[in-house]
Amino acid sequence: MVILILGLVLFLGVHSVRIVADDWRTAKRAQLGEAKWKAAYSVLSLLGFILIVWGFGQARQQPVVLWTPPLAMRHVAGLLTAVAFILLTAKDIPRNGIKARVHHPMVLGVKVWALAHLLANGKLHDVVLFGSFLLWAILNFRAARRRDLAQGTVYPAGTTGATVTTVVAGLAGWAVFAFLLHGWLIGVRPF
């Protein structure tokens, strides 16, 4: 569990700099230059991610059961992760109505993804992993919305075509991951 927690601290810590020290981040990016900043950010993020995967794998070997979720929660989690995939997709498709409305769909998608997994899993390592991501996403979403308000950020209105494309692409990505890749990569078949 220590390696999982270390990975979370490193990965989420790097991704939290803008939440807790945006001015420092801006100054460091200017001092180091964009390329060096991105390189350091990427290396630390990758190291944190590797530690999360390794630590989570180790923690799964000796699980501590906190509760046993009802079977129905698997179906609720399936539905919520479909929504999360749509939100994650909305980040990359220009002029979709989802991004126009929520402004930060990727962070909202992480929130929904983490909540879905918390509902369907009751082991300590699941709560540590998904609870950490949920807390991070809540804080990040709030900070991003405050930055938008302070800067007067205006998001372009969405179009129907882009929104439909976003939903279809998100659902397609979800289906591929849920029915094929999740079992292969994670070792758990949700369906």
Automatic annotation (TrEMBL):
Residue ranges of the TM segments: 40-59, 71-90, 127-144, 164-186
Source superkingdom: Bacteria
GO cellular component: membrane
Pfam families named in the record: NnrU (PF07298)
Membrane protein topology class: Multi-pass membrane protein
Cell location: Membrane
Domain NnrU, first and last residues per copy: 3-190
Keywords: Membrane, Transmembrane, Transmembrane helix
InterPro entries: NnrU_dom (IPR009915)
Official protein name in the record: NnrU family protein
Protein source organism: Rugamonas brunnea
Lineage: Bacteria, Pseudomonadati, Pseudomonadota, Betaproteobacteria, Burkholderiales
